[in-house]
Amino acid sequence: MSCSHEHTSSIMNQACCFHDLLLVTITDLGYALKPNGKIPRYITRILHTYYINTGKRMRDGKRLRSLLFVPSNDRKMIDKIDTLRPDAFILDLEDSVPKDQKEEARRVIAEKMSNRKTKGDDIDIFIRINDLGAEYSQADIAETICPGICGYLIPKFESVNELTRIAELISQIEKKQKIIHGKTKLMLLVESLKGINELKSLQMKELFGRLNALVLGGEDYLSSLSCFFVGSEDMLDFARKMILLYAKSNDLLAIDTVYKSFRDPEGLKSETNKIARMGFDGKLAIHPNQIEIINNSFKPSDEEMERIKLILKYREIIERNGAIDVNGNMLDTAHLKWAQKAANSLDEMNDQRSW
Questions:
Q1: Torsion sign over Cα 21, 25, 31, 37
Q2: Which domain holds residue 306?
Q3: Exposure winner among 27, 52, 82, 150, fewest CB in 10 A?
Q4: Could you give phi then psi for residue 95, rounded to 5 degrees?
Q5: For residues 270 and 177, what is the distance between their CA atoms, to the nearest angstrom?
Q6: 339 near 307, Cβ under 8 Å?
Q7: Taking the complete model, does pTM exceed 0.85, yes or no?
Q8: pLDDT in tens, 319-338
Q9: Residue 298: other Cβ atoms inside 10 A
Q10: Are 39 and 143 within one domain?
Q11: Is 59 within a domain?
């Protein structure tokens, strides 16, 4: 049974609109299926390529600015994912969950995700597992992986070999559960100098279908430097720059560490404005009150908005002439690329404004 190119494109367009390709039903794929009910190899290749090439774009291109930690051993806290609206949730199985509650926390997550199957909400959900050297990490994945989650936050990253093994485990489970290969993404939480140094070994093609972001774990990073002294901002900024270097050079998101003083909104605003201008894409959050402050810090200022509008206003002239003089300022194709990138990012944040 044949399937036209036009119909295949229609299927893909419809799939992207649903925030998760696995929500495409057998009926939607319709006559693209073979009589034996298996999806043709060329269709799975299209779907796989979509996931591999959209590692940075979670759920219709929405950027990850605010990522809120939620303790997974507290059912009341887990239920808040139905009402709060960060860009992503990180359901925690590591630091916030005592050892004797790990198993129960995994059950809480599995039940919550099972109950959410029919809701179709536009929510990005990651799970922070226990570190790869701990006894719990494989069970964390095996008991929680499902089509409804975006992926896992891997804490205390220090070994590409361990990361490769966990990626292979995920591939096996995806195959068993008929989840599109490569859909389950990995974010690496870098919390030590050893972890930063190991980032140079990430040049492995088999991992790039999985990796989505590099995340700075500032508290543990500073603790790893000294037993007695609180690390300085300069020491933290060094780690930030290294995270940015490796993330941006590998087309990954760069996510900054938590701001632990959740009753200090001005301090959070100042720090988030700083890291947004450095080039970070998002920041971890530990309290719902931090969500709006973080999200707003990743929007252009009024002055920047006016500059974006001005450059886009002269788009056609810049494209035709290469460089032009506007009120004594030179605008060229480099400025146009910047303005278009900023405009696209605003669209992806669902914050499109009148140009």
A1: positive
A2: 302-348
A3: 27
A4: -60, -35
A5: 44
A6: yes
A7: no
A8: 988 888 888 889 999 999 98
A9: 23
A10: no
A11: no
